[in-house]
Design brief:
Structural class: mainly alpha
Number of strands: 0
Number of domains: 1
Length: 163
C-alpha cells in the first residue's frame, strides 16, 4: 500500500472517530437512558453489575437527568465539547489532502492524544471518576495516537523519497 493511501485510511479513521464523538455528545441524556435500559435487558446484566459498571452508569444517568431538569443550560458546555470534536475533525482534512504540507496537524493530534492521559487521570481523580472509567478515557488517547503515528511515519517516508 502506498504511503498516501495509508495516510488517508488512518485519517479517515481519526475523522470518523471525532465525528462520532462529536455527534453523540449532543444527546447524552437520551443515549445514557437507552444504554442503561438496554443493559438491564441484556444477557450481560450480571457482568455489568459485578464490575460495578451498571451502578455507575445509573448514577451518571440520574445526575445528568437531575441536572438537565433543573439546570439545562449546563448542557451547553457539552454542546461546545461536541462542536470542538467536529471542528478538530475538519482540521484533519488538511493532511488528508496534502499530508506533507500539513504534517503539523498530525503532530498536533499526537500532542492532543498524549494530553488525554494526564487530563483523564488528574481531572478524573478530582471529579471522583472511578479509575477503570478513567483508564477507558485514557485509551482514547492511546488508540487515537496509533493511526496518527502511522501517518507521521508515512509522511516522513514521503519526505525522504522526495529528497
Amino acid at each position: 500500500m502506498n504511503h498516501v493511501r495509508r495516510i488517508r485510511i488512518c485519517l479517515a479513521i481519526i475523522i470518523a472517530g471525532l465525528l462520532v464523538s462529536g455527534v453523540t455528545a449532543f444527546p447524552l441524556e437520551s443515549e445514557l437512558h437507552w444504554l442503561v435500559s438496554a443493559l438491564h435487558k441484556s444477557i450481560l446484566l450480571g457482568l455489568v453489575q459485578s464490575i460495578h459498571l451498571l451502578p455507575w452508569l445509573e448514577r451518571v444517568e440520574a445526575a445528568l437527568s437531575a441536572t438537565n431538569d433543573r439546570y439545562s443550560f449546563l448542557a451547553y458546555g457539552t454542546d461546545w465539547l461536541a462542536f470542538a470534536h467536529l471542528v478538530i475533525a475538519i482540521a484533519f482534512i488538511g493532511p488528508y489532502i496534502d499530508p506533507v504540507r500539513n504534517k503539523w496537524i498530525i503532530t498536533f493530534g499526537l500532542i492532543a492524544c498524549a494530553s488525554v492521559i494526564p487530563l483523564a487521570l488528574i481531572a478524573g481523580q478530582v471529579r471522583g471518576i472511578p479509575l477503570p472509567w478513567r483508564l477507558v478515557d485514557c485509551s482514547f488517547g492511546v488508540f487515537g495516537s496509533i493511526p496518527l503515528w502511522i501517518c507521521l511515519k508515512s509522511i516522513q517516508a514521503i519526505e525522504q523519497s522526495q529528497r
